[in-house]
Each structure stands twice: as structure tokens, then as C-alpha cells.
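Sequence in, structure out. Go.
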Amino acid sequence: MSPLPTLLYEARWVYAATREQGMSAEERLVFHQEHSKPVMEKLHTWLQAQFDERLVEPNSGLGNVINYLLKHYGRNSPYFCGRLASRWTITWSSAR
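Output:
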């Protein structure tokens, strides 16, 4: 079974927690740095494994999304949990 649903749930939890608690920008940054990093590291490992293990064709629709996320991983990873979860939910559902 794919760990993706669990990773998406974790990413959504981090994003929702910052909204529900009404955190300031500084508080959100600290919270994301603490809670997003482990989720994003697991997600990065999973994304890379899709190509390494030839589970996803790099030129497919899902492959294009994975390529995009891997390309932008280092720059955005501490900050884009909510947007990532939303995009993956849409993409993953349509790719099934």
C-alpha cells in the first residue's frame, strides 16, 4: 500500500493546525519548520522512489507533477504543505 494518503493527511494536518490556531507569520514559520520537515522528507523519498523503481513514467501526467515537485523541493519544502496536499489529492485522484 502506498504511503501517499498518510503523507497527505500529515501535510494537511500541519497546514490546518496553523490556520485553526490563528498563528502569526513568525509562529507559523517555526511550526512549519518543526512539523513540516519530517513530512516533506518522507514525501521527497517517496517521490524519488516512483522514478527510481520505475513505478511512474516521467512523461505521464503524474510523472510531470512529480518532476515539478522534485524540481522545486529544496526551495519550497518547508512552506507548501497545504498547497501540496491539495494538488496531490487532485492529481492522484485523476491519475488512478
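Check: Residues 88-92 have pLDDT under 50 and may be disordered. Residues 4-95 form one domain.
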